[in-house]
Design brief:
Blueprint lengths: L1 E7 L3 E8 L2 E8 L9 H15 L1 E4 L6 H11 L16 E3 L2 E3 L9 E4 L11 E8 L3 E2 L4 E3 H7 L2 H10 L1 E7 L7 H5 L4 H10 L3 E5 L4 E8 L2 E3 L6 E3 L3 H4 L6 H10 L7 E5 L7 H13 L1 E2 L8 E5 L3 E5 L2 E2 L3 E7 L1
């Protein structure tokens, strides 16, 4: 990883973290300054840098805590979003602040753009490191423009023409219950949400279980820069992403159509696992990883930069907020 000094002024210093072509701008205070003392400069720098780098890391400022993190995100002027139609377990911590995905510490979370498995997604995602893990626990990122550029053009065209279908089965002790995903126990409210968001739904087992299907994009054009980005979670939701032992055990207890989640092309045909392996390989070849420091804040343009999570040891607390 290269670290380059790119600029200094009387309030903030700048560095660039770069690895495998993905870059993050690091902003740090000159002297003993808290975030509030240099908010105007931070807003201006972040607005200028996010479309160039895709991500900005605030490092060396005083600890914020959950409430301070919420105030910081709010101060940038974009509405905070709730975690609607989520795919992973999280807990609400403070107003618009959530825990990061609550998967076991020994599990990787592959690269993905937040909620790119839907037709509605946050423009930005914010991370705050409240407690850095004793070992591991990075939030690796990858430039979605680079991912798109490095994928085989034939693969990109294949996905762009056919798009991606996400099939989800909720509950049954295997995945999130539908009540948690939709934030309600009322089936008519679930149906209303699905209709409004072009999600096909099907009640199973006398209404106890729910299956949804939604066809979404494989790529997007960034509304500000006009650049094309790879923007989907076909590789993450597909059954091939499960460890072989887990996959085999799961298929022993449920039929293919009852898997908690899976992906297909938009016409319902299977996606060749080799295509998904190529996508995963390109993500690995474009990833930037750095160790969290306590009180770090990472701001990502959600279209330009994907993120993931490395396994870790010891206590780790990283908070998340999303903005429109």
């Amino acid at each position: 990883m290269d670290t380059l000094i790119s600029g200094i002024d009387e309030v903030l210093s700048e560095q660039v973290l770069e690895q495998n072509g993905s870059r993050v701008l690091v902003l740090s205070p000159q002297g003993a300054l808290n975030v509030d003392a240099c908010l105007p400069q931070l807003r201006e720098r972040v607005a200028r840098a996010r479309t160039t780098y895709g991500g900005v890391l605030l490092r060396g400022f005083d600890a914020l805590g959950a409430a301070g993190f919420d105030r910081l995100v709010t101060s940038f002027g974009q509405p905070l979003l709730t975690y609607e139609f989520g795919s992973t377990p999280r807990s609400k911590v403070e107003k618009g602040v959530y825990s990061s995905t609550e998967y076991p510490a020994d599990q990787w979370i592959d690269q993905h753009n937040e909620q790119s498995y839907t037709l509605n997604w946050p423009a930005s995602i914010w991370f705050y490191c409240d407690i850095a893990a004793e070992q591991g626990g990075a939030t690796p990122v990858a430039d979605s423009r680079l991912v798109y550029e490095r994928l085989d053009p034939a693969l990109r065209r294949h996905f762009a023409e056919r798009q991606v279908m996400y099939v989800r089965n909720y509950g049954n002790g295997l995945d999130l219950p539908w009540e948690q995903v939709f934030g309600t126990g009322e089936r008519d409210q679930v149906e209303q949400y699905c209709r409004a968001n072009r999600i096909d739904y099907e009640w199973l087992d006398d209404g106890e279980a729910l299956r949804t299907r939604q066809v979404c994009q494989s790529e997007l054009r960034h509304p500000v820069t006009g650049e094309t980005v790879w923007f989907n979670q076909a590789h993450l939701f597909h059954v091939s992403n499960l460890p072989p032992v887990v996959r085999e055990a799961l298929l022993e207890v449920v039929d293919d159509d009852r898997l908690p989640r899976n992906t297909f092309f938009g016409d319902g045909t299977s996606i060749d696992a080799a295509m998904l392996d190529e996508i995963r390989a390109v993500y690995r070849e474009t990833t930037l990883s750095f160790a969290w420091q306590a009180a770090d804040t990472l701001i990502l343009d959600n279209l330009l930069m994907s993120h993931g999570r490395a396994p870790f040891a010891g206590k780790r607390r990283v908070l998340v907020a999303m903005t429109a």
